[in-house]
Known about the structure:
Order of helices and strands of chain A: EHEHEHEHEH
Largest interface: A-B, 19 and 20 residues
Structural class of chain B: mainly alpha
Strand content of chain A: 15-25%
Largest sheet of chain B: none
Number of strands of chain B: 0
Radius of gyration of chain B: 18 Å
Number of helices of chain A: 5
Strand order of the largest sheet of chain A: 2-1-3-4-5
Oligomer: heterodimer
Shape of chain A: globular
Amino acid sequence: MPTVLVxxxxxxxxxxxxxxxxxxxxxxxxxFDAVQGLMQAKRQPxxxxxxxDVNMPGGSGEDTLKKIKMNSNxxxxxxxxxxxxxxxxxxxxxxxxxxxxxxxxxxxxxxLLTALTAAL
Amino acid sequence: MTGRSSPGRNQxxxxxxxxxxxxxxxxxxxxxxxxxxxESRELAGELAQIFLQELDSRIQEMGSAILEADSTRxxxxxxxxxxxxxxxxxxxxxxxxxELETMARAGKLGxxxxxxxxxxxxxxxxxxxxxxxxxxx
Lengths: 120, 137
């Protein structure tokens, strides 16, 4: 089953996403800030998709997305943005940076599962 | 006619019940939370525990940020609380945290203290509901 890296400083959301994905058979890794997330994305060759928050300590999700897409080891990993406060302009920006989907919080589990299936 | 309730009175009572139910749902909409967690009371209880573990430090940090007029810190913590509370279907707390986030973004911390006081009382009500949820999970 695919491995998904969940990068979110909100531990409620992180636990919710990780549990829902594990129940569906995904292997899940978690990171609680942008720096950890980026490090894991670069070091773990088995990551098939990333679920990324936008507002986090240690750097914004947009910066993290940019770095993921600029690194040759991680540029092909699909990224799903999960944000509580992204406006239309922000959505356009992250899509232009290479995000595969942009979802709003509060999380709707079906939306995430659909986006992941489409991205993988 | 004594002892019989009029249709108008019944309607008022139903309206009052509905309003009370809405108020309870605004503190914690358990139905919505259970939909999010796929009807798993166990997962709902786990999320409630995580939420409560982070709550005190967040409230303390928001209080300090208001006292120190640190709008950047208030904006960040209020945003985080809004997100977590929204994920828990705690609409009232999420909304008030959102108000504080907006005030902080606009640099209007002078108006934040009464809103923060309201948030603290909403949090007390939410905490009680979450403790019950954890016990029942």
